[in-house]
């Protein structure tokens, strides 16, 4: 099972927010997930990014790898995995 940190889109049309989840890479974007590890709301000023670094480190050690979008969030929040 290839685990990924991925963003799920929620919210209404033209008002999105995203949940950062750990999921199998073969699941659909908004499909089943293992654990929710944060969220991102780009519509507020300033944008709100909340990540649970401890849980993300746990899943990184288990084998989860971030998607490109989640990697950008990690850079913005200065969270390091590993």
Descriptive account of the structure:
This protein has 82 residues and is α+β, with helices and mostly antiparallel strands. It has a single domain, classed as S16 Ribosomal Protein, Chain: A, CATH 3.30.1320.10. Helix content is 24%, strand content 40%. A five-stranded mixed beta sheet has the order 4-3-2-1-5. The radius of gyration is 12 Å and the shape is globular. 21% of the residues are buried.
Low-pLDDT runs of 5+ residues are none
Distance between the termini: 19 Å
Can you say what the CATH homologous superfamily is? Ribosomal protein S16
Share in β-strands: 35-45%
- Number of alpha- plus pi-helical segments: 2
Q: Helix fraction? A: 10-25%
Assigned CATH architecture: 2-Layer Sandwich
Shape: globular
- As a whole number of angstroms, the C-alpha radius of gyration is 12 Å
Structural class: alpha+beta
Count of extended strands: 5
Report mean pLDDT, rounded to a whole number: 95
CATH domain class name:
Alpha Beta
Give a nutshell description of this structure.
With about 80 residues, the chain is an alpha+beta fold. It is about 25% helix and about 40% strand. The chain is built from 2 helices and 5 strands; from the N terminus they run E-E-E-E-H-E-H.
Main attributes of the structure:
globular; 24% helix; 82 residues; 2 helices; alpha+beta; 5 strands; S16 Ribosomal Protein, Chain: A; 5-stranded mixed β-sheet
Topology (SSEs and partners):
Layout: E1 3-12, E2 15-24, E3 35-41, E4 48-51, H1 53-62, E5 65-66, H2 68-77
Parallel strand pairs: 1-5
Antiparallel strand pairs: 1-2, 2-3, 3-4
